[in-house]
Amino acid sequence: MDMPASAPLDRTARPLSGQVAVVTGSTSGIGLGIARAFAGAGAEVVINGIADQRTIDALCSECSGLGAQAVYDGANLLDPGEAAGLVTRTIARSGRIDILVNNAGIQHVAPVDEFPPARWDAIIALNLSAAFHTIRTAVPAMREQRSGRIINVASAHGLVASPFKSAYVAAKHGVLGLTKTVALEVARQGVTCNAICPGYVWTELVEKQIADTAAARGISHEQVISDVLLAAQPTKRFATVEEIGALTVFLAGEGASSITGTAISVDGGWTAQ
After folding, report:
1. Annotated catalytic, 72?
2. What's the whole-model pTM score?
3. Deepest in the core among 64, 68, 113, 177, taking most CB within 10 A?
4. Which position among 38, 72, 120, 168 bears the catalytic label?
C-alpha cells in the first residue's frame, strides 16, 4: 500500500517513528544508552529499572525531548507476574509493543562451591527468567501485528566462560538458547529475535569497579584496565553504550528484517580467540 503523500515518514532521521519500545534495566548503563538511542530514533520508550524519583523524572524528560514520549514502569523483574505486567501495561497504555529489549541483569562472583544459593536464584531469575516472562507476554501481540523485534542483551559470557561466574555464565548461555528458540518459533510472523553479546562496556558501574579493583590489588588504574578488565579484549578498549545503542536501533529497524536467531558480539575480538 502506498503511503499518503501528505504524511511521509523520515525513515533516515527517525527510523523507529510510531513504534513502542520497552527496555528493561534502562535507568543506567547499557540499558539507558539503548533507551536514549531509541528515543533519538523516534520511538516511544518505556524505561524500567531502579532509581530515585528525581533521576526517573530527569530520564523520562530527557528521552521525551529526544523524540516521542518516554514513560517509566517500575516493574520488579524478579517477580514473574511483574515481568509480564511490564508488557501488558505497555500494551494497555500504548495499544501495541513493537520492540522488547531484555537488558536487566545482576552479577555475583564466587567459587561454585561457595556460591550463595540465594544469589544463584536471583541471577537466574533476573538475567534469564525475566526475559522468558516478558517475551512470553509480548509474542502474542507481536504475532497479531505481524511485526516485532525482540533483542536480548546477553554477554561475551554467553559464548565463553570465566571462573567464579557460574550463575552469570549459565544465565547468559541460557539467554542465547532462548533467543534461538524464540526466533524459530516466530520466524514466519514478521517477528525477529536476536541477542547482543557485549564484552566490557564503559559505564559508571565499570568505572567504580576499576577503582575498587585497583585499591584491592594495589595496582594502578591503567593496570586494572589493561591487565584485568581488558585482558581478553584484543582492541584494548571499552565498547561504549552509544555503540550498543546504535546496533540495537539497527536490529529494531527494517534493515534487519532477515537477521534473526543470531548472537552478535560487540567485544573487541574477545570471542574470536
Report:
1. no
2. 0.93
3. 68
4. 168
